[in-house]
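Researcher: Next entry in the queue.
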Amino acid sequence: QVQLVESGGGLVQAGGSLRLSCAASRGTLSTYTMAWFRQAPGKEREFVAAISWSGGSKRYADSVKGRFTISRDNAKNTVYLQMNGLTPEDTAVYYCAADRGRGLVIPVSISEYDYWGQGAQVTVSS
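Model: Structure for this entry, 126 residues:
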């Protein structure tokens, strides 16, 4: 079992950048597929990006492809989400999630992920 803690959220102007981090306060992340989801006010939580346990495979939502990059450093037990070219539509609470499964396809469904962080607020002003 792992406990996830997000950091790096904040307020940024449109066009700016932020980097979110997700660290394990307990357990190791190296065997988990890791993902970022987000939830805007009044909207359902949605998939943003995910990375396989080895880092060799990644998936992105179409809305962030080319702007966001997910990465991981298993030695530091941390996963990152680099967000560039932010727009007000990216404003949301961003959640880190871990999937115990090691299937060939990286899941994008909320129900596939077993552990969740508490979330980090990202606000993009216009």
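Model: The longest strand covers residues 18-26.
Researcher: Noted, moving on.
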